[in-house]
Amino acid sequence: MVYFIGAGPGAADLITVRGAELLKKADVIIYAGSLVNPALLDYASKDCRIYDSASMTLEEVIEVMKDNRDSEVVRLHTGDPCIYGAIREQMDILDSLGIEYQSVPGVSSFIGAAAALNAEFTLPNVSQTVILTRMAGRTPVPEKEEISKLAAHGASMVVFLTSTMLAELSQRLIEGGYAPDSPAAIVYKATWPDEKVVRTTVADIAKAAEENGINKMALIMVGGFLGSEYERSKLYDPSFTHLFRKAVK
Q1: CATH 3.30.950.10 residue spans of the chain
Q2: pLDDT tens digits, residue range 160-210?
Q3: What CATH class does 109-226 carry?
Q4: What is the rounded average pLDDT for all residues in the chain?
Q5: Which one of 36, 66, 136, 156 is separated from 112 by 20 to 30 angstroms, measured CA to CA?
Q6: 2-104: CATH topology
Q7: CA-CA distance, 190 to 146, in Å (whole number)?
Q8: Residue extent(s) of CATH 3.40.1010.10 domains in the chain
Q9: How confident is the model at residue 218 (pLDDT cuts 50, 70, 90)?
Q10: Predicted structure pTM score
């Protein structure tokens, strides 16, 4: 069996209990060494064979899985691998080879970043939608998902894989409808020991990143959820009736 496991955003103790238990039992671990905290390998047994996929091709990763098809294999991805994890291409090949696999979810980096900011993406009367996206680079983005078009919604936005294109990102966000002084934040290596949080504005994202030496492994957060204005939740409003409580008159 091959287990695709989300390693979490960085901190070794933010992997799920299920993920940690499978790491302990694994005969083979293939981990994304450029992104996954190596402290997670401390869960592995002394006899476990460990491969760093940072220098491997898809074909080489699959070859390891094929050679160990009768063993317990963990494919350890950063965050939750359903987001920019490149797992579908692995699973389709495993299907063609008749090798079974399961997915084990993890805590995504965008959730770790929200925790670093003590932020809530879905504030009443501010935003009830979270957009997870990226700028087009070597990997293209569908035309309808171009940043300025998504920005037109004014929703809470998290931008992945864009740390080297921040000046262009600011421009497109403003073109799409965010005011230049709209709140923004840069979260570098969320939940890692060297985590860094920088609060700024949409117009100053690139400047703030440069001043703080951030040019990789950062999420860009944009939207009113980072501001101070919002409405109180109806769920805990004494004047609001729901299934478990009657309104106080």
Answers
A1: 109-226
A2: 999 999 999 999 999 999 999 999 999 999 999 999 999 999 999 999 999
A3: alpha beta
A4: 94
A5: 136
A6: Cobalt-precorrin-4 Transmethylase; domain 1 (3.40.1010)
A7: 25
A8: 2-104
A9: very high
A10: 0.90
* Single-letter residue type at 159: V
* Exposure class string for 195-227: b at 16+ Cβ within 10 A, else e: bbebebbbbbbbebbeeeebeebbbbbbbbbbe
